[in-house]
Each structure stands twice: as structure tokens, then as C-alpha cells.
């Protein structure tokens, strides 16, 4: 089992859990099967049984086309998830006429690691590709037998497209070496609608800087601010801007759905809408709370046959990992012989997860080292790097773009933060435990409460067993070239953002 260890602050070193080669040999030679990941023929047997139970598929029936609509930095801050301050009629309509998932979680709270896991079906720290912003020269190759999803689909006679026509950006942002030319197409016009296809559409929203909605402005006085933020005009304006950006995103989703309809590509097509991780806010993005990990996920089809076959029911409240988006897509396409840590969520026999897992490692110049497991009731976080506060763990980019960072810092200097807000400027603890039923904002840490000693032990054990099971390759000491590369990244980022940081800080202080 992996035990809680403290960082050697001078050497930035952790006790290694395992070596990459040892894990890969063990994993691929044994084809291990467990509740938390499925591989090889065992996975195929369950997948085939799951999908055959929900369809009367014939030998000649064409598998569905699958389209991923990927937003950036978006939590469940949409009308269909109960937010009355935002107008998202297109996405709400997808949910109303499709299936809305209420418990979908990213494997990381920042884009590149999360997208790496999504593309491969493996936790990013299981395949050695986990630090955000490797230079290209240091990006690892994928282990043998692990392929990005579009490659697996192409081998199964699917056309693959990474759409780059507006409003899609074509962003992949993976932490491993790959050839972007391995996609077949970049435009809808190039797809043959008589053959099955997989297409990914990436929206830049709701990433910062926020796109404002001048036609439907959000009233800052009406937004709901989490209790760990100061209730101030600065934080309210920032939150309103984020929601307006979600409204512009909704317009872009409408454009893409129209493009699909106009090109005749919605027939036999299943659309998945989701985000890569949670909202781009302090204690959201980069951090292992629901605000950073819990994302919207909607499955939609306008084709009545596809809808009847795959989208029974309107809401799915079971727990799922974004790894399962990968596994479900491959299963729907009939891909066989692949390895995955995901499971399928479509089908009468689809089994939800008892818990989800996520990890955080280097993000730019900030050295994170945290792991979490979350059940429906509890979240446990282990912070192996715990000499920084949430606010201190801000990259230069965040300091240049997050007004709430400067607001918290300034109000702390004035001594006016509430206890919940004060936690953002207090070094994060080695362990965190939250009762999500009574504390949905995760502000009351129960790790040191004697009444929760038993639950704490259970969650520790759960994280230990998961760490061993998935083969966490990120717990060892980083090579010196990695340390040097991220140090230089930080120096360059601080230099690039220095003036913007100064201006934003002055702007915030002028409003106090």
C-alpha cells in the first residue's frame, strides 16, 4: 500500500511508488480485471453484454456516428443543472431531449492531464503523462498497447475528424507524443455520411478570458457566490462574466448542431456534450474539489432509432469518470481488443462506480502533488505537497487573469476574510475529509475530527488500494531535466505576465 509521505522541501522528492516499466509489465502481462478498470478480453465480454442488452442489433446494422462536443473549464453552471442566472437554451434542449448525467467527474482539474486521460482511457498518472506543460521534447510516448481513441476507431473502420472549422478550435492538448495527421479530416464537408464517423469539436469557452454577452448580460447582484469567496463586487463581476461566457458557448453549440443538421450528419449520430474539467476560478480549476472536477455531461440524439436504442431514461445519477466516455465510445463503435481503465455507461447492465479518483501534479510552475477519492457522500484528499495555500498555488498566468486572487490577498492583508475565506490563504493540510451531504462547498475539513476517525481510515484505505491498483507513476522523484524545464517555464511565465499582474492588482485594489 502507498502510505502518506511528507515532501522533502529542499529536494522536492517523494518516496517512489513504482517504476513505469514495472507497472506496464505487470499491467499488460496480467490483464488484471477489477471494479475500477477493465482490460483486454474481460472488458470486451462485459462491453458486449452491456450493449447487447439495450439493442436488437443485427449483423448488418451500422454502428452509430459519435460526436464529442468539448467545452473548456465548465462546471455544471447551466440552466439544465439548475442555475437560474444563466441562459443556455441550446444545451438545455439537448438535456431535455436527451439524457443528463449528474455525477460525471474528470480525472484531473486542469486541461492537459484530463484530456490525456480522456483520449487514452487511462488515468494520466497510470501512463506516465501527468505534468501540465511538458516541453514537447520531454513529452513521453504512450506505452505499448495504449492508443488515443481516434486511432482505435480508425482501425475499426471509422472516419475520424478533429474539426477545426469555426467555432471549433481543434485543440487536443495531450501530454504525450502523437501525430495530429493521424486524424482523417478537419472539416465536416470531408466526412462521408454513408460511413461511420467519430468527430471531436472543441470550444474555447468558458476558458478565460471570458467572452461577454452584451445581448443577455448577467446581473452580478443576482449570482450565487460560494462562501469561500468574499461577497464583493469584484468576485460578483468575475462570476457574472463566467456565466455570460457560458451563454456564448451555448450559441456556439447551437451553431455546431446546425452544421451537423445542414450537412445531413445527424442521422445515426450520438452526440456527447461535456467539459474537460471544472470552472476557471480560484479553488476550482487545478484543485481536487467538486468545483474543479464535477462536469456537465449530456448524451443526445435527434435520430429516434439511436435515441430509443441508447438513451433510455432522462437522467443518470450514478457516478462516472471521464475515462468512461472513452470506454463507452469504443464500445458503441464495436472496437475489440483494447485496454482501458474505463467502463461503459450505456446499457441496462451498465454499472456505475462506487467512487471516482483524480490526481493533480505539476501545473506550470506550481508543484502540486495531490490525490483524491470521492464517494457520493464523502471526499478524501491527500496533499503530499502542503506548504502552499490555495491562493499561493497560483501560476503567473492565473495572477494575471484572476481578479479574485488579488481580492483575497488584499482582504487578507486587511484582516476581513471570514473563516471559510481564510482557508484560501492558509497552507493546505496534509489530509482533507468532507461530508458532501452537509457540506457541498467542501469548507469543513473533518480529517482531524475524532468523530470521523473511522470514516477517515476507510477513505485512506480506499485511496491506498486505488493507488496500488491503477499504478500511480507520478509518486516518484522527477528527473532533473523535468525540474529544470518547469523552473524555466515559471521564469518565462512570470516575465510574460508581470505587467498584466501589476495592472490587475491595481484595478482590484482601486475597487476596495
Automatic annotation (TrEMBL):
Keyword annotations from UniProtKB, A to Z: Hydrolase, Plasmid
Q: Where is the Sulfatase N-terminal domain?
A: 64-162, 187-335
In the record, what terms sit under GO molecular function? arylsulfatase activity
Would you say which domain of life the source belongs to? Bacteria
Note the InterPro entries from the entry.
Alkaline_phosphatase_core_sf, Sulfatase, Sulfatase_N
| PANTHER family for the chain | ARYLSULFATASE FAMILY MEMBER, ENDO-4-O-SULFATASE
Q: Which family does it belong to?
A: Belongs to the sulfatase family.
Q: What is this protein called?
A: Sulfatase N-terminal domain-containing protein
Amino acid at each position: 500500500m502507498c502510505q502518506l509521505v511528507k515532501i522533502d522541501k529542499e529536494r522536492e522528492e517523494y518516496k517512489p511508488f513504482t517504476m513505469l516499466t514495472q507497472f506496464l509489465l505487470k499491467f499488460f502481462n496480467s490483464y488484471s480485471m477489477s471494479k475500477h478498470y477493465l482490460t483486454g478480453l474481460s472488458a470486451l465480454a462485459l462491453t458486449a453484454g452491456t450493449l447487447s442488452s439495450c439493442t436488437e442489433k443485427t449483423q448488418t446494422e451500422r454502428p452509430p456516428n459519435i460526436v464529442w462536443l468539448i467545452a473548456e473549464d465548465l462546471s455544471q453552471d447551466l440552466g439544465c443543472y439548475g442555475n437560474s442566472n444563466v441562459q443556455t437554451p441550446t444545451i438545455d434542449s439537448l438535456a431535455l431531449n436527451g439524457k443528463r448525467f449528474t455525477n460525471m467527474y474528470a480525472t484531473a482539474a486542469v486541461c492537459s492531464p484530463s484530456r490525456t486521460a480522456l483520449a487514452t482511457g487511462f488515468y494520466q498518472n497510470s501512463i506516465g503523462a501527468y505534468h501540465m506543460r511538458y516541453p514537447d521534447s520531454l513529452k513521453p510516448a504512450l506505452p505499448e498497447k495504449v492508443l488515443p481513441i481516434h486511432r482505435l476507431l480508425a482501425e475499426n473502420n471509422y472516419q475520424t475528424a478533429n474539426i477545426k472549422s469555426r467555432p471549433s478550435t481543434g485543440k487536443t492538448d495531450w501530454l504525450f507524443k502523437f501525430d495530429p495527421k493521424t486524424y482523417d479530416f478537419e472539416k465536416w464537408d470531408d466526412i462521408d455520411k454513408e460511413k461511420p464517423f467519430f468527430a471531436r469539436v472543441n470550444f474555447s469557452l468558458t476558458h478565460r478570458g471570458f467572452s461577454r454577452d452584451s445581448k443577455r448580460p448577467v446581473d452580478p447582484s443576482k449570482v450565487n457566490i460560494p462562501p469561500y469567496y468574499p461577497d464583493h463586487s469584484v468576485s460578483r463581476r468575475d462570476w457574472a462574466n463566467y456565466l455570460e461566457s457560458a451563454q456564448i458557448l451555448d450559441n456556439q453549440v447551437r451553431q455546431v448542431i446546425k452544421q451537423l443538421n445542414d450537412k445531413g450528419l445527424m442521422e445515426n449520430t450520438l452526440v456527447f456534450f461535456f467539459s474537460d474539467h471544472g470552472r476557471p476560478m480560484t479553488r476550482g480549476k487545478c484543485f481536487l474539489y467538486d468545483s474543479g472536477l464535477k462536469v456537465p455531461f449530456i448524451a443526445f440524439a435527434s435520430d429516434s432509432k439511436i435515441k430509443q436504442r441508447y438513451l433510455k431514461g432522462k437522467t443518470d445519477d450514478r457516478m462516472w469518470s471521464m475515462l468512461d466516455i472513452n470506454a463507452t465510445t469504443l464500445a458503441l463503435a464495436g472496437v475489440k481488443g483494447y485496454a482501458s481503465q474505463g467502463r461503459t455507461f450505456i446499457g441496462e447492465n451498465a454499472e456505475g462506480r462506487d467512487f471516482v479518483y483524480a490526481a493533480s501534479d505539476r501545473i506550470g510552475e506550481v508543484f502540486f502533488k495531490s490525490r483524491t477519492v470521492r464517494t457520493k457522500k464523502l471526499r478524501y484528499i491527500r496533499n503530499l505537497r502542503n506548504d502552499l495555500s490555495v491562493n499561493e498555488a497560483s501560476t503567473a498566468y492565473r495572477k494575471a487573469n484572476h481578479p479574485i486572487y488579488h481580492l483575497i490577498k488584499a482582504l487578507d492583508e486587511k484582516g476581513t476574510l471570514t473563516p471559510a475565506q481564510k482557508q484560501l490563504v492558509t497552507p493546505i493540510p496534509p489530509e482533507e475529509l468532507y461530508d458532501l451531504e452537509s457540506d457541498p462547498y467542501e469548507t469543513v475539513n473533518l480529517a482531524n475530527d475524532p468523530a470521523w476517525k473511522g470514516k477517515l481510515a476507510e477513505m485512506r484505505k480506499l485511496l491506498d488500494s486505488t493507488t496500488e491498483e491503477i499504478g500511480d507513476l507520478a509518486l516518484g522523484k522527477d528527473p532533473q531535466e523535468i525540474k529544470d524545464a518547469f523552473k524555466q517555464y515559471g521564469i518565462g511565465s512570470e516575465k510574460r505576465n508581470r505587467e498584466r499582474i501589476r495592472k490587475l492588482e491595481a484595478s482590484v485594489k482601486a475597487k476596495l
